[in-house]
């Protein structure tokens, strides 16, 4: 405890009363009064105009990046400017001066963030789609439509559109589809598409991909020992990368136990040791609560500790087995409470080591130290033997899952670039490509180019960014069949078929884009048309004949025409 690096509960912030008493002793107690500015309240047309202005400003900045010929955006940040092509990164960087306009921008920012959190890609399309829905919705409300009726109708319609797209999606077929999806998501970068396809080929469709910076100019793919854990950080206060909301550790010490940690005294010796070693500490426990969690969080925020924790995955006896697997990967000793291995008695030798730890909100990726390879292979052989001997279907499934996690390893894409700006841009593109590819593998693919959306705004903007008249392209898309649209790279309409052009888009992203727009929907526009019929208090009819763009003509369209009215929704 005499060490200069010692950690104790005394490192918590002093109570306010102690600080006040000290100031009183040193002299006269000073008081400061801070008054907030008065709130500006707006109603009706003024508020709607301000909201729409904010929506337009943010969506315009994000929308210029859409499509294969979209532009980049330069963000003026501390240090060198950042050149990005990622919708959610741009959206998060924009704050408007006017509070009411900023509220409108926040709507689009939320759509982009939700889409990114759920699907990992498709954020620009979601932003453009939300902007168009809001614009037409506000126009309808200004014309006298009942916003509640419109909102209820669109909620029901969104579900119908998602179901239709799900029915039309097809599974990914081999490396060609994977390469095409990854390349398109990375801004039509064939090199990134090939790299993602190579990485998935090495670790399999259920494998794990990790992205990190390279020490050279080259971008390479290596397969290393490691695994993914289906648990995220216990507290968001552990986050080290605020932009991505993740925890990133290198050469971390790992403590693994099935015990609940409630008192800081239980882990105080280990905290002191890792602080002396200047190594991050990654804790896996049944749970961390009360004083222990509060002390870890406070000391982490004050920069005294570099620590993060997750709850142990799985349940019951299977939890012990999974924790033993993790212990093998990291070279740690599993501190099991039924064996009397208490956390407060843990030593440095019982800690494991991970070359890299990445903790997301719901998952954690471990990349093991190279010395663990032989132990991992021995563990896999043991599990395969157990798999061959079991008669239980459930045990067979769980053993196969554990074997896949251990044997698959982690494909590490080491990104190289000549400058920091280029490196950040390439990492963002590879991250988008990775997320889109796994979404496609899991859920299937549909035609890209914005042709599968109820609103044709994405397809129109893709054409506009390519220097082509968007409305002309939209009309040609509407006259075409389901798998035909506009390819902005070749500037040739009607060449978008899945088997013809290779222009494909993950169905899961379509689903998330549609679902993310739902919370801000007040009206729907389909085929660039929304018609108001009857009096202001009457029913609003919204033509959704092109619920799936390129639906094949008027005869096929009548099946999805509908009315929105009061409580009835879509009829």
From TrEMBL:
InterPro entries: Chaperonin_Cpn60_CS (IPR018370), Cpn60/GroEL (IPR001844), Cpn60/GroEL/TCP-1 (IPR002423), GroEL-like_apical_dom_sf (IPR027409), GROEL-like_equatorial_sf (IPR027413), TCP-1-like_intermed_sf (IPR027410). GO terms for biological process: protein refolding. Keywords: ATP-binding, Chaperone, Nucleotide-binding. PROSITE patterns: CHAPERONINS_CPN60. It comes from the Eukaryota. GO terms for molecular function: ATP binding; ATP-dependent protein folding chaperone. It holds the Pfam family Cpn60_TCP1. CDD domains: GroEL. Belongs to the chaperonin (HSP60) family. PANTHER family: 60 KDA HEAT SHOCK PROTEIN, MITOCHONDRIAL. NCBIfam families: GroEL (TIGR02348), PRK00013.1 (NF000592), PRK12849.1 (NF009487), PRK12850.1 (NF009488), PRK12851.1 (NF009489). This is RuBisCO large subunit-binding protein subunit alpha, chloroplastic.
